[in-house]
Amino acid sequence: NMASVNVLSLNTLSDLHPKPDTTFTYGTAGFRMKADLLDSVIFRTGIIAALRSKKLGGKVIGVMITASHNPAADNGVKLVDPMGEMLEGSWEAHATALSNAQTNEQVLDYIHVMVSSLKIDLTNPANVVYGRDTRPSGEALVSALEDGLKVLGAQSTDYGILTTPQLHYLTRCLNTVNTPESYGEPTVEGYYKKLAAAYKVLVEGKPKLSPVILDCANGVGAPKFKEFMNFLGDSFAVKIVNDDIENSSKLNLNSGADFVKTGQRAPVGLKMTPQDRCASFDGDADRIVYYYMDEDNTFKLLDGDKIAGLAAMFIIDLVKAAGIDNISVGVVQTAYANGASTQYLRNTLNVPVSCVSTGVKHLHHEALKYDVGVYFEANGHGTVVFSPTALKTIYSTEGSSPAQASAVRSLRALSEVINQTVGDAFSDLLLVETILTQRQWTPKIWDQAYSDLPNRLVKVVVKERSIFKTVDAERKLVEPAGLQDAIDAIVLKFRDGRSFVRPSGTEDVVRVYAEAATRPETDELAFRIGGLVFDFNSNGSGTRPR
Ligand code: G16
């Protein structure tokens, strides 16, 4: 199988992308850091993508250059496997090792290690597609990627500026075109057409809701959603805010899903009245949260947990209404899920709930174990996956009454409107709008399913976040020794108290989550645990949470 690596070309290209004096790690969703440190990493990611494709006999691999919810100065890369999932977990270590090779010779050696240990046939073709978000650093990083792709002679297509979920969609479509599993037309237009057609079926004949006010975080979601509106037409009413992609410093700044979820307040540039229904995308449009203002002007968040609850409730009802009894629904969450949401799912909806580590890659895999798996992180990253058996049932049932037939039609359209490859803010927006339209619900009615326990997220800047090691789906620290005991001792003093600490895999911070019976108790708990972490590993910079 031994075609070999062209060493001369590897050296020449690699010399153009020297490795800085930094140790890289593949994080929650790929490499992510200050954009000016990423050149060599992205170059080598091109090599990894080509190797991955060759390993899979030439299947198309996706590469997305984005730092999603991070500030404008950051960038990063997400790798997409053939069916649109995140890169297989076992390859993350290879990506890390290759990114840390010091010399050209070590890069070559590591390629050889992969070729022999993974039995990669270098004579196989390699096919890679890629895109980027609106960050100004994206263009140069795309050239670095292209150089990396040249090393192993990969065929590639540049899709330009895209949302992350659009690239996941394209990757899956390209790999399934002309097969029974065909996922759709492999173009961005095909993506818009598929989602818009399904949405129109879902809301047909129902009175339209008021326009949703949509905060696009000044990111790629803005131009792309405007494009999408050409396909949604009259079926969808929206008022877009925070759509300035020219002034890149505004990206995610005091806006976007992460800001709204963490700060539990409305983004800049969005004036709410109690009549409004609002939603925020993040910087690459793979997350969404909703919110509204109560009559007494209190801000109310409808986060990923609320979306999961709404979606699970709706799907269970539809399956019942369709007269189908052999499709089971399950929900996957992370430790960040509000305790009240887990109780609602288990005790009111009676669905099984599993808890996994942060990262859609973990949730996605767990969700595939159910006939219909609903997965959402509290931060608004998630989707619904339908198993092949579930789809077969839905498409082979007709329903024996008009009501059943209509429920079946909705289920089919739902499986099309949902981007099953990964969490997708556009698709999740349509999912929520479908349910609210079909039920003629306000966000307040949706919110009444259960009351969130007050909760708070705190970011703590520390000296070395890698010293924090967790187990039990990130709910317990095993290192630094003694810290978990100290946390437990504090939590015990709070009614309904729960708190955990884990290092972020996308930002250089440690995250602290806390919930308790009341708002003041929650804040006190969060700040006491945050202070504890800070004191344990402060680097003298950053501020002690309070
Ligand atoms: C990424 C991942 C999400 C994760 C988030 C935060 O989102 O895809 O699954 O929840 O990072 O991760 P961490 O807490 O490790 O920083 P995005 O939207 O930033 O790509």
Automatic annotation (TrEMBL):
Hydrolase among keywords: no
Where are the active-site residues found?
Answer: 68 (phosphoserine intermediate)
Residue ranges of every copy of the Alpha-D-phosphohexomutase alpha/beta/alpha domain listed in the record: 61-97, 103-175
Database matches in CDD domains: PGM3
Top-level lineage group: Eukaryota
Binding-site residues for substrate, renumbered to this chain? 377-379, 502-506, 511
Question: Which Pfam families does the protein's record reference?
Answer: AMG1_II, AMG1_III, PGM_PMM_I, PGM_PMM_IV
Which residue range or ranges hold the Alpha-D-phosphohexomutase C-terminal domain? 457-526
- Which cofactor does the UniProt annotation name? Mg(2+)
Q: Where is the Phosphoacetylglucosamine mutase AMG1 domain?
A: 190-289, 303-441
Which InterPro entries does the annotation name?
A-D-PHexomutase_a/b/a-I, A-D-PHexomutase_a/b/a-I/II/III, A-D-PHexomutase_C, A-D-PHexomutase_C_sf, A-D-PHexomutase_CS, AMG1_II, AMG1_III, PAGM
Per UniProt, the keywords (alphabetical) are: Carbohydrate metabolism, Cell wall biogenesis/degradation, Isomerase, Magnesium, Metal-binding, Phosphoprotein
| Binding note for cofactor | Binds 1 Mg(2+) ion per subunit.
Q: Please state which protein family the record places this protein in.
A: Belongs to the phosphohexose mutase family.
Functional note: Catalyzes the conversion of GlcNAc-6-P into GlcNAc-1-P during the synthesis of uridine diphosphate/UDP-GlcNAc, which is a biosynthetic precursor of chitin and also supplies the amino sugars for N-linked oligosaccharides of glycoproteins.
* Protein name per Swiss-Prot or TrEMBL: Phosphoacetylglucosamine mutase
Q: Species name for this entry?
A: Entomortierella parvispora
